[in-house]
Amino acid sequence: MKNKHLFDNDLFLKKEYSCLAGTDEAGRGPLAGPVVCASVVLPDTFYHEDLNDSKKVSEQKRNNLFDIIKKEAIDYSIVIIEAEEIDKINILNATLKGMQQSLTNLEQQPDLALIDGNVSPKNMQINHMCVKSGDAKHACIAAASILAKVTRDNIMTEYDSIYPQYGFAKHKGYPVASHLKALEEHGQCLIHRTTYKPVKDIIERIGTIENN
């Protein structure tokens, strides 16, 4: 069974914690768009051979898993933190806020929440544990990573129709060469993160804002 360890690791913890949730995010590194956080509670019987860290799964398989997870999960929650708020509170705090909200929004409150990474939200009331590279170790975190990634990719594809000059549908806001070139030519648009150095430097240099 492919990636069986992801599910075995979850089942091992479920011997002690009957309700297990996984939490992950997508979009910490891009220069534009939101960061998206998701939490998922999977049933004990859930298995899919393609489930893995969303970065290791093809777009077609991610989209397929997205629909399957939403249909078969006991519960899930997706939270979107927009670029404007990221600029106000910084990306780490925005990510932690989104993770915490996605967990507290669950109707099925977990006995243990597994949070991808090594930093957890402050003052969180839910019992939790950080797992470094958790999306490659636990099925529930991998499922959360799929929901977060596909949701964010869809958002950036929608923004591409509003701001076609930046190519958001292709690079999803990440700082690739074509995106940086578009920033130089057009300046920032309303979904760019103005506190991120490449955007901030261009604003300071050319001082233009693309509102179209």
Walkthrough of the structure:
- By secondary structure, this protein is of the alpha/beta class.
- The protein has two domains: 4-159, Ribonuclease H-like superfamily/Ribonuclease H (Nucleotidyltransferase, domain 5), CATH 3.30.420.10; 162-206.
- It is 44% helix and 14% strand.
- It contains eight helices and five strands, in the order H-E-E-H-E-H-H-E-E-H-H-H-H.
- It has a five-stranded mixed β-sheet with strand order 3-2-1-4-5.
- It is globular and about 60 Å long.
- 46% of the residues are buried.
- The mean pLDDT is 94.
List key phrases describing it.
five-stranded mixed beta sheet, 212 residues, single chain, Nucleotidyltransferase, domain 5, alpha/beta, 2 domains, 8 helices
> Could you state the order of secondary-structure elements as H and E?
HEEHEHHEEHHHH
Secondary structure class reads alpha/beta
The average pLDDT score comes to 94
Question: Distance N terminus to C terminus?
Answer: 50 Å
Find the CATH superfamily of the largest domain. Answer: Ribonuclease H-like superfamily/Ribonuclease H
Strand content: 5-15%
Strand arrangement across the biggest beta sheet: 3-2-1-4-5
CATH architecture of the largest domain: 2-Layer Sandwich
Low-confidence stretches: none
> Tell me, what's the shape?
globular
Reported for the largest beta sheet, the result is:
5 strands, mixed
Cα-based radius of gyration, to the nearest Å: 18 Å
Q: Which fold name fills CATH's third level, the topology of the largest domain?
A: Nucleotidyltransferase, domain 5
How many individual β-strands? 5
Helical stretch count?
Answer: 8
CATH domain class name of the largest domain: Alpha Beta
